[in-house]
């Protein structure tokens, strides 16, 4: 999912500033926030910390996966509005606060925040019968997160096939305009005013990687596409670097039904399989899910509105919701979507 605050794609966190990012399970820093106990949490052992927490909604594929999963995992990282876990089979999943929103590999709880809950990175997590039990230090009892009452969320992708000639390019232009009007500078939008040498160099590398990738996808050049993906993968600061966010947007567009960019996701998956260590665990999870047409609800809602050819005024709020993801993660992802829309228009040709 840049130096970018609360990350939300598909898992979240307070991000750290690096150029080519590598993830470490223990390097997360908890933030601050309202840790008030919501009405759907029972607290028989500790007035501040519940021992049982109901999941309000969850990724339907994850819920199915958890029902058949048993064994021991661990807490990957802890932030104000999310706890990231590693399952016994190595999948990275998220326990989000109630304002986190639906996303792949995510369970949305009723907590306002995870601050003060006694959850620590590296602690063991027991999985079984669809529930997740987090070990916590004394005096906190274990915290059991149940999923039996969770509302299943499914990532439903729209089709852009009915957009008329010029409609895809017009949608791309609109996204670019709204990003520049409402999004912060940085990332794929270029270095912020007054940026230092490092940020300027990263912005230049991001632009060069984008150019390489777009030209290769346009030409159907698989080797060039690989080079473009490798140029962007893990590039930029944050838990989901800007390069990953751009790849996420482009991959999501390419995964839509009937896309002329259908050759891109297989190449992307191949690169991720061989070079996933170039980026963070969170970045890898986000890009991988996008290649399968799975992304945050905010992104899918925006694509649906584009498919319905809604006027620009109807897109301002949805675009701003996406832009609120991280510091520049939302804008970087929209840049990837816009690039994909333009490529789709070009490859369709006149109808």
TrEMBL record:
Pfam families: AllH (PF11392). Residues 37-55 have a biased composition (Basic and acidic residues). This is DUF2877 domain-containing protein. It comes from Streptomyces nymphaeiformis. InterPro entries: AllH-like. Residues 1-55 are annotated as: Disordered.
């Amino acid at each position: 999912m840049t130096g970018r605050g609360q990350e939300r794609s598909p898992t979240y966190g307070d991000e750290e500033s690096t150029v080519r990012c590598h993830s470490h399970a223990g390097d997360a820093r908890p933030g601050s926030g309202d840790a008030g106990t919501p009405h759907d949490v029972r607290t028989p052992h500790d007035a501040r910390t519940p021992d049982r927490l109901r999941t309000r909604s969850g990724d339907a594929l994850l819920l199915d996966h958890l029902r058949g999963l048993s064994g021991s995992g661990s807490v990957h990282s802890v932030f104000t509005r999310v706890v990231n876990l590693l399952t016994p089979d190595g999948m990275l999943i998220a326990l989000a606060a109630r304002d986190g929103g639906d996303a792949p590999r995510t369970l949305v709880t009723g907590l306002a925040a995870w601050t003060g809950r006694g959850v620590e990175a590296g602690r063991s997590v027991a999985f079984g019968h669809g529930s997740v039990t987090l070990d916590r230090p004394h005096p906190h009892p274990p915290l059991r997160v149940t999923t039996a009452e969770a509302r299943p969320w499914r990532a439903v992708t729209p089709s852009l096939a009915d957009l008329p000639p010029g409609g895809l390019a017009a949608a791309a232009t609109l996204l670019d305009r709204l990003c520049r009007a409402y999004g912060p500078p940085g990332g794929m939008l270029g270095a912020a005013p007054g940026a230092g040498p490092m940020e300027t160099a990263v912005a230049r590398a991001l632009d060069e990687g984008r150019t390489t990738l777009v030209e290769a996808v346009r030409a159907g050049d698989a080797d060039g596409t690989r080079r473009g993906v490798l140029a962007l993968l893990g590039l930029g600061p944050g838990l989901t670097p800007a390069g990953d966010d751009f790849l996420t947007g482009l991959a999501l567009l390419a995964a839509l039904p009937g896309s002329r960019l259908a050759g891109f996701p297989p190449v992307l998956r191949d690169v991720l399989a061989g070079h996933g260590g170039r980026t963070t665990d969170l970045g890898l999870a986000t890009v991988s899910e996008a290649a399968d047409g799975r992304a945050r609800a905010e992104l899918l809602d925006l694509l649906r509105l584009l498919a319905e050819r809604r006027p620009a005024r109807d897109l301002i709020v949805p675009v701003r919701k996406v832009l609120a993801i991280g510091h520049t993660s939302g804008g970087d992802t929209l840049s990837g979507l816009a690039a994909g829309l333009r490529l789709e228009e070009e490859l369709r040709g006149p109808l």
